[in-house]
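Minutes, structural biology subgroup

Action item carried over from last meeting: produce the structure token record for SAM-dependent methyltransferase (Vulgatibacter incomptus). EB confirmed the sequence was re-checked against the source entry. Recorded below for completeness.
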Amino acid sequence: MDMASLGEVTATLEHTSLGEITARVRDLSLHGLAIELPIDAGSTLFPGDRLETLEVRADERSLFRGSGTVRRLGESDEGIVVGIELEGDGLDLAELHRRGARRSFDQRLQALGQARARNASVGSAFKAWAADLLSGLEVLRDFLGREEEALLAEDDFTRREVEAQILDAIHPWIVKEMVAARTTLNELVGGFSDEEHQLHRAYLKRHVAPLFAESPFMRRALEKPLGYAGDYEMMNMLYRDHREGSTLFGKALNLYSTNEEAAIANINRIEFLGAMIRERIERADRDRIRIASIGCGPAREIAALLNKSPELGARLDVALVDQEDRSIAYCEKTLAPLARATNARVQVIRESVRRLLTAQALGEALGERELIYSAGLFDYLNERTSRALISILYGALADGGRLAVGNVAHHNPSRWTMEYFSEWFLIHRTPEELLRLAEGLSPAPRQVRVDAEPSGVNLFLFVER
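Output recorded by EB:
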């Protein structure tokens, strides 16, 4: 959302441990916002924390008053960036409109001058790259638009058949063009400071975001309807037909965005996790192996395993833990029939990270497990929280059990396209940084190592008890 027309936007929240806090809003959408807090204050918050009292104000006017939920935490040079999902109807759109209309001409003129100054600070090479990207996307959009118009007179079957042929032909082309654009972007911004990244991201968003938003996958990342990118539905988008969109151009762009290296690594996790579960079943000396997935999302790996090998259901006792109500509801709807058909035991648990960080709550929720894994949660947790949660999860392992923690690798080739194209931010880690998260565990692990799914982009820390 363009915040320039709103003036100074702040959020005031009440938290059980912090009391009342007022912070500047650095990003705003209809149903979510991001604020920045000092490290001491931000470290007290955890994903899943509920904020019963939350107000968003633009100068003297209230844009939102209600409750919210902390969804994501990230680190910056100045502190902790907190992503919050707004409950209810979200922001007051009528007030937003009035705010924009009410600002004085002098204020708007001042904002224009500031915007021009910011534009002047954007590097010329970056501007040239952005212009080439925009031009190429517009040419492709117009070309595919004409192809669509030519099909209007055709029947539905013929139109779908020809569109599929067009997308099959355009897929490798758009991937090649966008990978070339990504390579140049990586070279241009790889050494930027946080301030330079913010400046250049804002420039690109202003010029190219409307085109990116024609891809449903990229639009959901940009709009963050649950307050953060990477929610359970975005995971579902990766696992189903990628040719989604209301136009041929949108479908083509969606094909690209769901085939970036980071997306492919995410898709690879299904088979990677499934193989790990199979291995634990084969070596288990008990009738059912007790498994837990922390931050389970849509739990597609469990559905895939049971669909492919229904005979394994009788060997599975699975606890799926997530803090998002919609994710929990999705798992209940999709896995309950599979569990009944395969005799698998599947328990779905709504629990926040803060609650998981108490051994008593975790023991009550899980009991001892032979395998505990978390595929994507740690991409959003700072080092302090990651260490604490790993210690708690390790403590819930049975003797001989394994803890597997996923984290996107520091060398992720999709990092800057995720941040610049979709405002999707992760905490990347090297293998060495992942290994350090497991230091000081008691009793000492039998083995600690780092592996990866086939692409090498999604790392996994394995801790054997």
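Discussion: The longest strand covers residues 61-75.
Next step: EB to file the record with the rest of the batch.
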